[in-house]
Amino acid sequence: QVQLVESGGSLVQAGGSLRLSCAASGRTFTTYFMGWFRQSPGKEREFVAQLTWSSGSTYYADSAKGRFTISRANAKNTVYLQMNSVKSEDTAVYYCALATTRSKYDYWGQGTQVTVSS
Length: 118
Fold this sequence. Notes:
Helix content is 0%, strand content 53%. The chain is mainly β. Strand 5 and strand 6 form a beta hairpin.
């Protein structure tokens, strides 16, 4: 089993920055991907960013490219999402997820709320 705990969500003004953290514990040696997703009210959960644990390579949704950066601290089994130049449409609950294979995400955190005020 793997446990994921997100933190760092808050109220931020449009144009500002925020860093989300996700600490993983348990059987983390099985990690293939770690990623961030988000869900706004009335919308489906959507992909934001992904990091391949073995190589460190990253992949972003178009909405995140150039503004968000996913990174990791290996020793801490932690992944971060640096959010810059935030917009009102970034308001959502952000979820951290972990995949043990390349086919799907197996574990999810409880989510952290990000609210962007205009």
